[in-house]
Structure formats: structure tokens, C-alpha cells
Amino acid sequence: MPALSEHLIEEILIRIPTPRDLVRASAACASFRRFVAAASFLRCYRSLHPPPLLLGVLGPRGFLPAEAPHPNALVASVLARDADFSTGHLPPRGRSGWLPCDARDGRVFLISSDPAAGSVLPELAACDPLTRGYALLPPIPDSVVASVLDPAGLNPSNSWPSYAYGCFYWKGLRSNKLLKLDANRMEFSAVGLPPNHENGQVVVAEAGEGRIGILRYFLHQEIPSLCYSIMQNEGEDANEHLMETTIPLPSDYHRYFIVGAAEGYIFLEGLRYIDQQGTGRPCARSSAFFSLEIKTLKIERVCSAPGGCVAILPYFGFLPFLSPRRI
Q1: pLDDT digits (tens, 9 = 90+) for 284-312
Q2: Which of 156, 184, 192, 189 is nearest to 171 (CA)?
Q3: What is the pTM of this model?
Q4: Exposure string (b/e) for 239-249, b if CB count within 10 Å is 16 or more?
Q5: In what order do the strands lie in the sheet with 265-274?
Q6: Which residues pair with residue 269 across a beta bridge?
């Protein structure tokens, strides 16, 4: 080791593929720890290894950390102990207060349906659960608000949109089409879906090489499974060269719901009905959240959710010492 220059040591450390292994390497000696703790090293490492860790989900009851045997369970338990996902330190906003609406790179974005005086639109805030720092975001310009219409007349369903390649997608209600909003051009268009997607749950994901992947789940199925279709393009012949895969889901849950998509993952809630009174009819339920990695189609159980949740936000974050502590 003495023969290695500091530059070579840094080049070796920055090529360690996962944050967990980087933590182990930093514990080897004081000099390694000094390299890894440097702000310049951490910025470079995050740029080379951009995907943060899946640490849990945000629901109506707060943060639910990933549970064993999930590989990030230990880090998630540390985050749940040290971070603050409450909103008591934000400026008060009427009766409804602040509600989480998105989470990116360890930050949580909140929305207030009781905007400040003189504002018509809800307010937005970005928060750092590790430092309790926050910033109120500037209001959306009126010109942008006026442009958010539905020219395609698809009547999008009342749910959070999917996001892929700089575009937002809403499933049309009882329609075999998607409503697409190009966030760069602020333009709407309609995208045709493969056949028989009118009534199922549909989510859009990035399938690589500019293609979009379509995942479909029907509520009433004897064997729980997802249908994954990769669309080669969005033109009139988009459905002529579909690549379809059927993905079986864990059979110990009776019903599934697609509840989100982020960072190359699809998130599902599995419901299990329990007969607690010997009546032969399901009278109670338990639920758990699962992640499906689009690249590998691997399914992992993330955490349990007592009582179930209507909607969740997947929370991806860095290890505490890798987190960019600025808001």
C-alpha cells in the first residue's frame, strides 16, 4: 500500500460498484475513510453510480423501511431511526397541512392543498429527512397552468402518472390509449396501447434504448401475474412487433395492485385475506409491498403494510455519509 499514490487509491475506491462495499472499504483504515468522506469524492462517486438504494416506501402512516431479507434492510433501519419524515418543522398550511407527492434522490416533495393567501394553486416544498432542511418551491407560472389541458379527450384516470424519458403518461379511463405529456415541449399527444388494455391497471416504464415498457395487471385472475410488453415505437405500427413476457407473482397473496414506478422499478401491493372467525369468509387482511426490477424482472418483497395503503411513494436514498446534505 505505501507504494500506491493517493491518486491511485482514489481511482480504486471510486470503482467500487455498490455503496455497501464502499462502506466496508472505508472501514479498512483511516486513510481510506478520509478519501471516502471527502465531498469531492462523494460527488464523483454519486455521478458514476447514480442509482440510490431502495430503502422503503412512504405511505399515509409515514415511512415504512425495507425489511429483512431485503438486502437494504440494515441501512433502511438506520434511516428510519435517524431521519425525520414528519412535517411539523414546515410552515403551517391550513387544515390539510403538507402531504408527500414525490420522492427523488433522498428528497421528499410535499404538496399543500391549502395554499398561502393570494395563491390559487397548491404549494410545493422539497425536504431532506436527514437534516430537516426544506425549501418552498416557486409557484407554477400561469402560462404553464393554462397549457395543461387534455386535447386528446382521453379522460385520464384519477391516479399519479407514469414517467419515462422526460414524459408523463396517464392511462385513459376505459380506453386503449395513453395520454402523453412531453415535459420539455409541454405538448400532449395520444399513444396507442396493445390490444385488451382497456380495463386493466397499466404503468409505463423505461425499457432501454428509448423504448417504453407497458406493464398490465388485471384484478380478477386465477394466477396472479403481470403482462410486460415492450413497444418498439409509438407510431401506428407500434403493436406489430411487440415483445411480451408474462411475470408470475408470489402466490401467497390473493390480489395485487400496481402502486408506483420509479428508478427502473415497478411497485406492487399484495393483499392477503385472513379468516379470523372461522366463518369461511375473509374478514381481515394484511398486505406487503413488492418491487419488480424492469431490467432483470426480479421481484423482491420490500416491507409489510399493516391495514394496507391506497397509494405509496417508493423512497430511494443514499447511505447517510453519501447523502448530499443540501436542500
Answers
A1: 577 899 999 988 889 999 998 776 656 68
A2: 156
A3: 0.75
A4: beeeeeeebeb
A5: 255-262, 265-274, 284-293, 298-304
A6: 257, 289
